[in-house]
Amino acid sequence: MRPFTYQRVATAAEAAAAVAGNPGAKFLAGGTNLLDLMKLEIERPAHLVDVQDIEGLGTIEQAEDGGLRIGALVTNTTLAANERVRRDYGVLTRAIVAGASGQLRNKATTAGNLLQRTRCPYFYDPNLPCNKRNPGSGCAALEGYSRQLAVIGSSDKCIATYPGDMAIAMRVLDATVETVQPDGTTRAIPFAEFHRLPGDEPERDNVLAHGELITAVTLPRPLGGKHFYQKVRDRASYAYALVSVAAVIQPDGTGRVAFGGVAHKPWRVEAAEAALPQGAAAVTAQVFADARPTEHNRFKLPLATRALAGVLAEAKG
Amino acid sequence: MLAGSGAAVALTQAPGVQAQGSSGGAATPPTMPVSFTVNGKEAELTLDTRVTLLDALREHLELTGSKKGCDHGQCGACTVMVNGTRINSCLSLAVQHQGDEITTIEGLGTPDNLHPMQAAFVKHDGYQCGYCTPGQICSAVATLAEIRAGIPSHVQDDITAAPAFSAAELRERMSGNICRCGAYSNIVDAITEVAGA
Amino acid sequence: MKFEQAAGTNPIDRQKIIGQPTSRIDGPLKTTGTAPYAHERHGPNHGVVPNQSYGYILGAGIAKGRVASMDTQEAARAPGVLGIVTTLEQELLPPGQGIVANIFGGAEIRHYHQAIAVVMAETFEQARAAANMIRVDYDRADGRFDLATLAPQARVADESGKLKGEPFKVEVGDFAGAFAEAPVTVDATYTTADESHAMMEPFASIAAWEGEKLTVWTSNQMIAWSKGSLAKMLGMKPENVRLDSPFIGGGFGAKLWVRADAVLAALGAKKVGRPVRIAMQRPLVANNTSHRPATIQQVKLGATPDGRLTAFHHSSTSGNLPGGDVEVATQQSRLLYAAPNREIFMKLAVNDLPEGNAMRAPGEAPGLMVLEMAMDELAEKLGMDPVELRIVNDTQVDPEKPERPFSERHLVECLRRGAEEFGWNRRNPKPAQVRDGRWLVGMGMATGFRNSMATKSAARVRLQRDGSLVVETDMTDIGTGTYTILAQTAAEMMGLPLDRVTVRLGDSDDPASAGSGGQWGAANSTSGVYAACVKLRTAIAEKLGMDPTTADFTDGEVRAGNRSARLSDAGELMAEDRIEFGDLDKQYQQSTFAGHFCEVAVDSYTGEVRVHRMLAVCEAGRILNPVTARSQVIGGMTMGVGSALMEELAVDTRFGLFVNHDLAGYEVPVHADIPHQQVIFLDHPDDKANPLKAKGVGELGLCGVGAAVANAIYNATGVRVRDYPITLDKHLEKLPQVA
Q1: Start and end of every Aldehyde oxidase/xanthine dehydrogenase a/b hammerhead domain (chain C) (predicted)?
Q2: CATH number, domain at A15?
């Protein structure tokens, strides 16, 4: 870990300005992923702006439109335990408690979780080529050990997956990410547009500008229906998803579904959701129509179908 | 032997050369004062900003009960409670904890005056090598508090209901604490006893 | 004391303290965080030596080739840096005992993450940052990394498991002929994965020099071996090296040997003229040190319709660095089942991956995962119950030397008792028949087998003026319960309550013990304490003027005839002895046995496997402490679940490394993977093993478990997966259609 200076700020605008004016600066909230990566020098900030003291970012409030506004600093545990979330946005609670461990969820924040970087093993080993860590060095995963990695939306430069769970639920809920930009103005980013596909710039995980601070995630009015988050993994807990399914299914069999563990971002194809009443295979045939799996992760395609089938069976039962 | 495009790209970088642009050099690393309480005692330290809470405890306060198993949040051996909430102390900077109240394994009990959870671990042989044990015990104490507080878990059928003190709940909630010796079955027995007390 | 004849009745047989369920005497230290592990022995309160500095290891970024150049200028100038030792300035050190990889020195890179520098600094943060400032240029060479590709050229290993001597094959009777004629056969190829010990405490050492004398406070299972090994590597006289390792945060074989932490702490301390403290960073552990090598195994079984094995073939191929050993995966096959026609051998493929070496139950762990799956396949072909198949093929003698019996062998009892306790009769022998909602449910079983090894072990016992006792030996407690069973042994022998005995372990200045490995630690180290206590009893009786042969040591008193005296009346006395062994282990095969039973549920949608119930019925001689022995067994069972379901060091066959080299990438079981585990010990003291009549259980608990899990999965799904670990992708598409 390289030396860095550390500062605490009181307002979001102050935070955004402090980072924006310093190319080596980064925001620090829970730190559960950033410090992990700094120890390996995958992240090497020269200055950290600790946002934990910023007022108003730690609460969950009812929004005017009947939805919910989740402050950026709300921890995973607090969010998952929120009565309203458990009742009206069950898919979100289920996704959060399927992720990481109790300890990590106590520290990890809503905003930080969205910014979690990939768990691709080649990204994590600084000796090996990785376009996300070291642009232009190549992608060692493409023809390497790719069992965990993306089956769709990948590029020749990168097949990393976004590793989180919470965001898969937020995608299915049509959440919005609110930010403060370096100039002090705010913007609202539809969740579908927040995470990027790797394309030619796999080093960019999302659309945030340097110094742009997430202040909240808002959820629209509750959808009703039954909420599911089916996470499939090699061990029973404390593991990243091979495939996950976030779904909200209405009594008539219609609904929404997004997949985790399959792409560089939460993967949802709205057009395919019309096929939900016809069953899982009809949906995934469309959702994964453009899949380009590797030899190691081809199983994720039938797995996604089967996992969704399990969810649909439970929804009926 | 190298095959495919992986090999081609591999040759474009010299493996092991990590630096792209250098920092460091001879400049003195930044330090900062920080104060918090540990097990009820005030601690005032001036630390390199890079010092984690775990290393502040282990290296600067000589509280070596909290263990470093991985230093990356992958094992749980470093679990401590901060303001009553369990976290991985290896993934937290000490300077993030200004004013916090920290409880470590040393704050729960001593060999002559064991905390009920420590006594239950001894009784049920909830450990072997002992290295993950302080983290398991801190996590166990916090887990019972989390269930009492109604924090939901992955194994609940109904996440709007209050969670139970069942073995399945304990196993899920303790899963961030790895025990390679494989004492899990005994650890759950130990926690169950304390939960029922 | 030489143990040459079967043990008669001795004070241990009283079993007032030994054999009783006893909480660990080190429990209060471990549960309060006050047990001192190697890296923690610093500072004003816990420090073993003042003025310690921090060392940080840099691992090579290539798997094979040479270090062309190293630029340490920036690192050397970095704040707090005290000194750097690079591999280019150090002559190649010879390998230490028991290991094949050179730990340090020279330009040649033989495996990924080989240590190439150590940086010493005032703080951990400074040392870590500076290590990453060292710029290294490599000349990369081609390497051999893919076992499947290398296997066809693998050569048959010699009897010691290397490629030095004559190729060794067990060939009894006419295997080929018998197999060709057998009415029922199994012939299949199986694979097991490279596995990582993944003990929770990383390798750690503090080294300090005093003139020519070196002390290393470390985390090591085998103190006497490692003292000699470190001396050899550093070109020192062994008497100038002291190791101290009172608490070890797990080893599982990884800490049998001296590794880079100890060597580089010693070299670094010399360089900077200060003690150096190093903990190997977790991401370096898997590739820098050792692992259990992957295997490709073939089993061919021929049987009569009533299940009697007539033809038995087991062969295994594994890889290792030049000069390394095979993974002895066919070891148990020479002894486990009777079959008149036998063919058993191992092949070794030379590779350039990190070193393969001992991990808990080397050989038997992967060997039984395969053999016991093949037996399950045979049982199904025969239409025979898998338990009965094992029973029919039980042997009471060494199948290669029928004149050589087992000392004790109650495998049949393990299996029958296990079947009864587990409710085996409720198992549907037809696979894929039992459902519980979305779950497919199945039961499986396997035989567990692991040899018991007799090896010399010494101890010193000191009677204190107050009548209490101190036991001193360089034996280690790696979580096995050594502190407690040595105290129990001494208390039993001397007629003292347990709390009057203090045990000191892990210091190479104390008598050399068996050490902790190969599940031989408990039986041999307690026997060493037994020997020392016998000597002390004689000294005490003589001092008190009593007949040593009839003196009875009970309740803190010595009694002979109508006389009695307090133990403390003897004053301070000391005795040291060691147990040595004659040839009883040649006359009798000494082994341990288990029946492992498992019930699993497989998600019919996702293929995920969850273990619902586990039982082990074990026979391992006298059980010295049912509490700690049970823990050893459940720990093995847990590791067995890992082997069966998830553990795999993933090889990148282009770059030549294990890519998932941390505890997030290399998954071991967590709490949620492990159900309540039941363990039953049979009571069959083995009087031909040692005076304690005890054998080990630490590896037995693992041996066979993987196959029991795998066989349960097959029973649940009807899909046979012969490649471990059985991750869901390997059977997913063969499960019932769901969408």
Answers
A1: 32-142
A2: 3.30.43.10
Active-site residue, C699 included: yes
Q: What is the spatial distance between Cα C180 and Cα C187, in angstroms, rounded to a whole number? A: 11
In chain C, the residue whose alpha carbon lies closest to the alpha carbon of B16 is C61
pLDDT per residue as tens digits for the range A29-38: 999 999 999 9
Average pLDDT, chain C: 98
User: What tens-digit pLDDT sequence spans chain B (197 residues)?
Assistant: 333 333 333 333 333 333 333 344 457 899 999 999 999 999 999 999 999 999 999 999 999 999 999 999 999 999 999 999 999 999 999 999 999 999 999 999 999 999 999 999 999 999 999 999 999 999 999 999 999 999 999 999 999 999 999 999 999 999 999 999 999 999 999 999 999 97
Q: In this structure, are residues A167 and A150 in contact, taking their beta carbons and an 8 Å threshold?
A: no
Instruction: With beta carbons less than 8 A apart as the criterion, state whether B173 and A100 touch.
Output: no
Per-residue tokens: C445: 């079983």
The complex's ipTM?
Answer: 0.98
* Kind and range of the H or E run holding B120: helix B116-124
Q: Please report, as a single letter, which amino acid is at residue C29.
A: L
- The answer to whether residue C608 neighbours chain A at the CB level (below 8 Å) is yes
- Classify residue A307: in a domain, yes or no: yes
What is the pLDDT averaged over residues C605-610? 98
> Chains contacting A with at least 3 CB pairs below 8 Å?
B, C
Return the CATH class of domain C11-36+455-580. alpha beta
Of the candidates C288, C729, C114, C190, the one whose C-alpha atom is nearest the C-alpha of residue A146 is C729
Q: Do A140 and C669 touch (CB under 8 A)?
A: no
C-beta atoms of A147 and C610 within 8 A: no
Calpha distance C636→C638 (Å, rounded): 5
Residue C367 is predicted with a pLDDT of 98
Residue type, A3: P
Q: Is residue A122 part of a domain?
A: no
Q: Indicate where chain C has its CATH 3.30.365.10 domain(s).
A: 11-36+455-580, 51-142+201-249+255-288, 150-194+292-452+588-734
Structural domain harbouring A292: 226-316
Residue A299 belongs to a domain with what CATH number?
Answer: 3.30.390.50
3-class secondary-structure state, position A12: helix
Return the residue matching tokens 């006359």: C587
Residue of B37, B40, B60 lying closest to B50 (CA atoms):
B60
A104 lies within 8 A of chain B by CB? yes
B41 touches chain C (CB under 8 A): no
Annotated catalytic residue, options C377, C380, C619, C699: C699
B185 interface with A at CB cutoff 8 Å? no
The two three-digit tokens of residue C215, written as one number: 């002390």
- Write out pLDDT tens, residues A156-214: 999 999 999 999 999 999 999 999 999 999 999 999 999 999 999 999 999 999 999 99
User: What is the pLDDT, as a whole number, of residue B7?
Assistant: 33
pLDDT, tens digit, 9 for 90 and up, residues C47-58? 999 999 999 999
CA distance B177 to chain C (A): 7
Residue A61 lies in a domain: no
Token pair of A21, please?
A: 């004016």
Amino acid found at A38: M
Q: Which CATH class is domain C150-194+292-452+588-734?
A: alpha beta
Tell me the C-alpha to C-alpha distance, in Å, between residue C437 and each of A314, C84, C165, C430, C595.
10, 62, 57, 19, 29
The count of structural domains within chain A is 2
Q: Say which CATH architecture domain C51-142+201-249+255-288 belongs to.
A: 2-Layer Sandwich (3.30)
- Residue C542 three-state SS: helix
For C123-165, write each residue's pLDDT tens digit. 999 999 999 999 999 999 999 999 999 999 999 999 999 999 9
pLDDT of res. B22: 38
Residue A242 lies in a domain: yes
Q: Which residues of C touch B175 (CB under 8 A)?
A: 670-672
